[in-house]
Amino acid sequence: MALFTGVVYAAMGARFVFPEIKHGTKSSFASHWLMRARSSTTLPPELPTRGTMVDQFQELDPAAFRSALAQFPSGVTIVTTRSEAGTLHGFTASSFAALSLDPPLILVCLDRGADCFPVFMAAKHFVVNIVTDAHADLALKFATKGENKFADGNFELDEAGNPLLPDAAAVISCELEQAVPGGDHVILIGRVRDARTGAGKPVTWYRGGFLPLGERAA
């Protein structure tokens, strides 16, 4: 007597379980029902054509897009690094997220038009400081161009010489793993080398303003 094991076949999105002879030869029973499945399965619907959803995205209003993004509360970070010449640089970013736990990776987005863009492209390390409501004015300063951003703030240097905020809600030191183009921004992917947390609560950015945790949005 032949011995059988169950084998699963997927045909056009449907799943069927048929017997298979142990030596690898499919039974005529399985072949018969597989042919029936192929002939009776409904084809998927057609993709959108011109005049439908595709054109609606092409005609997107930039102001409407910004308004929609403003409805999503996000954390606020000050991202810092040190150039090869020893000068300190940084920018404010709310587009920050965890990417992977193993290996430990994060991502943050940098505007191509930022003054510090060339420095971060050449940097080997950078630091993400998750700021609190006490750093609101400092975060606004790091979001602008052309001023001495490090004149204020209680910055210290880590082992690699990059500036960090010891009183931040969290400090994440990274090695630049990859820089990925993304429209008018570049996605910096950092491999986390050190992470520490502070006593302060992080602040959020919502509808164009800061919103401390625990406060009710208007």
UniProtKB/TrEMBL annotation:
Entry superkingdom: Bacteria
All copies of domain Flavin reductase like, residue ranges: 69-212
GO-annotated molecular function: FMN binding; riboflavin reductase (NADPH) activity
Keywords, comma-separated and alphabetical: Oxidoreductase
UniProt xrefs under InterPro entries: Flavin_Rdtase-like_dom, NADH-dep_flavin_reductase, Split_barrel_FMN-bd
Record Gene3D superfamilies: Electron Transport, Fmn-binding Protein, Chain A
Pfam families hit by this protein: Flavin_Reduct
Name assigned to this protein: Flavin reductase like domain-containing protein
